Amino acid sequence: MTTPSPNATPLLRTLSLAQITFYGIGTILGAGIYVLVGEVANIAGSHMPLAFILAALVVSFSAYSYGHLSRLYPVSAGEPVYIQQAFALKSLSTAVGYAIVFAGIVSAATIARGFSGYFAVFLALPDSLTISVLIILLTGIAAWGVKLSVTVAIATTLLELLGLAFVIYAGADKLPALLSTTNSTLIPENLIAWQGMGAGAFLAFYAFIGFEDMVNMAEEVKQPEKNMPRGILLALATACLLYFIVTLCALAAVPLPELAASKAPLVMVVEKNTAIPVVLMTAISIVAVVNGALLQIIMASRVLYGMGKKSMAPRFLAKVHPRRQTPLSATLLVGCLVLSGSLLAPLVTLAQATSGTILCVFTLVNLALLRLNWRDLRRNFVALAMPACGALVCIGFLLLQFWL
User: How much is the pTM?
Assistant: First the structure.
């Protein structure tokens, strides 16, 4: 009698192009834009909108590689599979997979720690209790079913977009005055200004990280060969447009020194220029935090599931619940690790290491597409130049990170 494989039940292929695009927008926006605007403004000054555009151009090379590889190999645990197909080094592929899981767990744990601070504005409870309830709830949503998980993610993403719409509303009527001085304030005029914008773009780069999580949902997307590349493109383009408009409106609505000094710059923009209650923007910021943690739990569990299928991780992680059609074992394991990390581990150093981990993965993914295109005789200029530029940019950012 044949023993059934742990992945005999497939994941439920239920996500449309619109759903995976909203999932991607949610992973890119996250909670970062609600605090990152001030930090970028502090470095790039009034050139902040162009810094975000430059960051989008930089990340587009890696997005190109992810889009093409997700079309060729529409599976969970995307990055380990891409590396394995290109280099046939199982140890390297496995290391990349665990690196992605590590980054997701640390990110979710860090977000959960931040949530307790926001939540204390409404209700003072012990941090450990707030964090534990949050992670147990999010793990339960992720385990219940992909349709529920993505529905919750889309709903919270829509609330994040509402918060950004408030910022645009706050600054829209002041935009003509800002744009009338475009040549003197928004466009760098000398080398020092260009250097400041470049440094701001380096920081803004991290506001675009998240699109790579989309590929790990490939086995739950309808027609992934078409919808994954399109979803990545649409999510990244939407985030870029939003960042540009939001930063313009923020600059128009609040003096630059105040914007650069604020720890909650977008909340300040709305507070100073509209009658919208501050508590509402704070609540939206909390939703953004919760959304980020949920999406990281979903992503990390799918990577472990995919690695289990490929025998890069313990096979029990590839088990799919027969009714819910979710990777239950992988999801529960990720939830436990996130909870442990958020309660026990000193996360500051780990969180800083996450950025370097992601850049290393991006470098390898770009090199994987470059090697596959060369090997399979797809040697036209774009097919080779895009991943090559992506790898060089990521290496440059890694070196710059250490230098800074």
Answer: 0.83
Residue 383 within a domain:
no
And the tokens for 260?
A: 């650069």
Give the pair of three-digit tokens for residue 56: 């989008």
Instruction: Locate the DSSP E strands across 231-321.
Output: none
Asked if residue 273 is part of any domain, the answer here is: yes
**Residue 15, strand partner residues:** 221
Q: Are 334 and 19 in contact (CB under 8 A)?
A: no
The tokens describing 107, both together, are 């990110």
Tell me, what amino acid is at 108? A
Please tell me the distance from the alpha carbon of residue 310 to that of residue 306, in angstroms, as a whole number: 6
| Residues in contact with 139: Cβ distance below 8 Å, sequence separation at least 6, in sequence order | 297, 331, 332, 334, 335, 338, 339
Answer yes or no: are the C-beta atoms of 23 and 295 closer than 8 Å. Answer: yes
Q: Distance between CA atoms of 292 and 225, rounded to whole angstroms?
A: 26
Tokens of 49: 């909108």
pLDDT tens digits, the chain, 404 residues: what are they?
Answer: 344 455 567 777 888 999 899 888 988 886 567 767 888 888 888 889 999 998 898 899 999 999 999 999 998 878 999 999 999 998 999 999 999 898 888 888 877 876 776 677 677 788 889 889 999 999 998 888 877 887 888 888 888 899 999 999 999 998 888 877 655 577 777 777 788 888 888 878 878 888 888 888 888 899 999 999 999 999 999 999 999 999 999 999 999 898 888 777 888 899 899 988 888 887 887 887 788 888 889 889 988 998 998 888 999 998 888 888 888 899 999 999 999 888 875 545 555 567 778 889 999 999 999 999 999 888 899 999 999 999 999 898 888 766 65
Q: How many domains does the chain have?
A: 1
Tell me how many degrees the CA angle 172-23-310 measures, rounded to the nearest 5: 155
Residue 369 one-letter amino acid: L
Residue 357 lies in a domain: no
Whole-number Å distance between alpha carbons of 173 and 53: 22
Range of the domain at 114: 17-346
Q: Which secondary structure element, helix H or strand E, spans residue 314, and what is its range?
A: none
Separation of alpha carbons 254 and 175, rounded Å: 11
CATH number of the domain at 232, please: 1.20.1740.10
Q: Is residue 230 part of a domain?
A: yes
